[in-house]
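Hi everyone, sorry if this is the wrong subforum. Our group has a chain we'd like a structural model of before ordering constructs, and none of us has done structure prediction before. Sequence below.
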Amino acid sequence: MSVVYETAHEEELNCIMIPVGQRLLLLPNVCVAEVVGSSRIEVAETGPAWLIGFTGWRGETLPVVDFGRMASGPESEPIKPRCLVVMNRARRGDSAAFYAFAAESVPRMLQLTGQDLISAGSDLGELDVMHVEVGTETATIPDLDCVEREITVWSGVPENRG
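Answer:
Right subforum, don't worry. Here is the predicted structure as tokens:
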């Protein structure tokens, strides 16, 4: 007779914590294509307050987004980027496949389980899915669909709804 032992093993998710202004964004690693230096930003002459400018990356021109200003409006303090987090778009459509979040310092990699995340309040903004406590810090899980919709609307590229 064979005995099968089961272990209670919860899967870990590789995440990245991105410092953007007064908040930390928490995202799965699969959302991030690469972290690059911020020295190559071409400042935008026009556009919404959240648009810092553009950067070249792998032959493409990407918009650089100040998440704090996109979430809180132009009255919030602009970010002073130290690096850029190049994001894989969740919503491809006819839009560019990538954009970049400006980060005030180098993002941190984390491995988390569901037990590591504790809900931290319900005062959610339009671009927030959830606020969570990760250890001693509070982080925001952003609504990337909303972020990408804002970028698409601003760029004038129609969304592919199919």
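For your construct planning: Confidence is low (pLDDT under 50) at residues 1-7, 158-162. Helices lie at 67-72, 144-155.
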